[in-house]
Amino acid sequence: MITVVGTGTGAPVPADVLAGAALVVGGRRHLDAVRLPEGAERIVLGPLAPALETVAEYVGKELPVVVLASGDPGFFGIVRALAERFGAGRLDVRPGVSSVATAFARVGLPWDDAVVVSAHGRDLRTAVNVCRAHPKAAVLTGPGAGPAELGAALGGDRRVLVVASALGDPERERVERVTPAEAAARDWGGAVSVVLCLDETRALGGLRTVAGVPAQPDRWALDESEFAHRDSMITKFEVRALALARLGPRLGDLVWDVGAGSGSVAVECARLGAAVVAVEKAPDGVERIHANARAHGVDVRVVHGSAPDVLGELDDPDAVFIGGGGRELPAVVGACARRARRTVVVAMAALDRVPAARAALTSAGFTCDGVLLQSSRLAPLPGDVTRLAATNPVFLLWGVRTPASSEGVAQ
């Protein structure tokens, strides 16, 4: 039997759990905090594979093993690796309070509506994009992915970081509120347990039925009337529906909406969970995007400027929607294609621009497809009858990055 004990947030390890253990495995600080049974072997966790091999030797001899872990070991913890290797039936899990629950308790906030993301041994960009898109996130940190790196990546985003260090240690525990810039400027050492990223204006949230990841919207491709726009200069909902299907925005993604206009695509991507940057050159367009984002309760970062000039300051996107560009369209498509990790979608009213946009995508290693969208909507006529009113045709072109071409994209 392998007994897995959650500790590290102030809960002592019961003496009876350790009694009779032939092997005790854990982090150095966990092992130093307990009295090992006489004759028990001690393994300090570093690389997981060698430790699992030793555990397998003891399990094979039917000798009792105790594994010490932080907080709740079934929550982004070692229980997964142990269950995959030895089977859940061999585990006796004694959970402690997770660092996430403890950190939220320290600041007096509920966390059933928080998104929890691990950056421990993983790419930090997913955690950064979750923090950008969601008003309440908890980030499990690790070497090279701590408060400083998170703060530097979030930059000017309107967030407060709560850095919780050495949780449960009466002498060393610290819980500090800092701005992303303040977090980026400090050396936090190795005692950080978790970082909370909060939009404090929305930190309480509302009543939830499902914990964690926010519920998906019940509809998308919203009617144009649900967005402020100028002179019908907005991506029509039929076009938006297919564009969203090809973009595939989701939690953890970063999407660019280039030539955003009203920001309808940006807002829809944000409603589906992605972090979004809208690029718009018209000052009144910038204001409309901000207003539409507020009206739909989502975060959209708006960059005022012309593409491709302003794109260099942005993080690499997973997906890009291009709804404007004029004569600069081939250059804009090329600049986006060189940076996009997954897909680029381009909407064009002028058919003459399709070949150049397609060439820009294929030269960047994308496979391309497209469709001319023509739709007619029901429209009332006098006498209680209905006609079909045609909308302007739009050519939608999309490129999907092939595995071989992804090698040149910053990871």
TrEMBL record:
CDD domains: Precorrin-6Y-MT (cd11644). This is Precorrin-6Y C5,15-methyltransferase. Keywords: Cobalamin biosynthesis, Methyltransferase, S-adenosyl-L-methionine, Transferase. GO terms for molecular function: protein methyltransferase activity. InterPro entries: 4pyrrol_Mease, 4pyrrol_Methylase_sf, 4pyrrole_Mease_sub1, 4pyrrole_Mease_sub2, CbiE, Cbl_synth_CobL, Cbl_synth_MTase_CbiT, Cobalamin_biosynth_MTase. Residues 255-322 form the Methyltransferase domain. It comes from the Bacteria. Residues 1-182 form the Tetrapyrrole methylase domain. The keyword Ion transport does not apply. The keyword ATP-binding does not apply. Pathway: Cofactor biosynthesis; adenosylcobalamin biosynthesis. GO terms for biological process: cobalamin biosynthetic process; methylation. Gene3D superfamilies: Cobalt-precorrin-4 Transmethylase, Domain 1, Methyltransferase, Cobalt-precorrin-4 Transmethylase, Domain 2, Vaccinia Virus protein VP39.
